Amino acid sequence: MNRLRHFIVLGAINGFLAVAFGAFAAHALKDHLSAGLGHPSHFPVYRSKLGKMISLHSRFYGCVRDVGAQPFDEQSEAYRNLEYFLTYMSNGLEVNGPGARK
Questions:
Q1: Strands across the sheet containing 45-47
Q2: What pLDDT does 92 receive?
Q3: What is the DSSP letter of 98?
Q4: By three-state DSSP, how is residue 73 classified?
Q5: How many structural domains compose the chain?
Q6: CATH code of the domain covering residue 72
Q7: What is d(CA 20, CA 17) in angstroms, rounded to the nearest whole number?
Q8: Residue 81 structural domain
Q9: pLDDT at residue 30 above 60?
Q10: Comparing 28 with 17, which gets the higher pLDDT?
Q11: DSSP line for 15-71
């Protein structure tokens, strides 16, 4: 896959995840939505409801699963590419992790 097509596909995945997670969070969690930009800067994150630290790949997996789609395995090529894309788009932002969430 050429680089431009690769980034277009990743952009579509990022958009899907943002919309899917946003809809899930807004209706099921009734929590505030956040922009997709900067997410890699605060991972790993401690999730109190799980009682453990989770990786960005775990979050991708959970997000995709929670909207009823078939998730990829953690550390799959798709999630590594998505992590690369999100990290690239977040270049220059302050690293503020590890974080803590509900």
A1: 52-54, 45-47, 99-101
A2: 84
A3: S
A4: coil
A5: 1
A6: 1.10.760.10
A7: 5
A8: 3-30+39-101
A9: no
A10: 17
A11: HHHHHHHHHHIIIII------STTGGGG-SEEETTTTEEE-HHHHHHHHHHHTT--P
Give dist(CA 72, CA 39) in Å, integer. 19
Find, among 97, 80, 102, 78, the residue nearest to 40 by Cα. 97
Position of tokens 């990786």? Answer: 55
Q: CA 10, CA 85: separation in Å to the nearest integer?
A: 7
- Asked which of 24-33, 41-50, 58-67, 88-97 is least confident by mean pLDDT, the reply is 24-33
Which residues are bridge partners to 100 per DSSP? 46
87: buried, middle or exposed (CB in 10 Å: 19+, 13-18, 0-12)? middle
Tokens 């699963």 belong to residue: 65
What's the CA gap between 31 and 28, in Å, rounded? 8
Catalytic residue ranges: 63
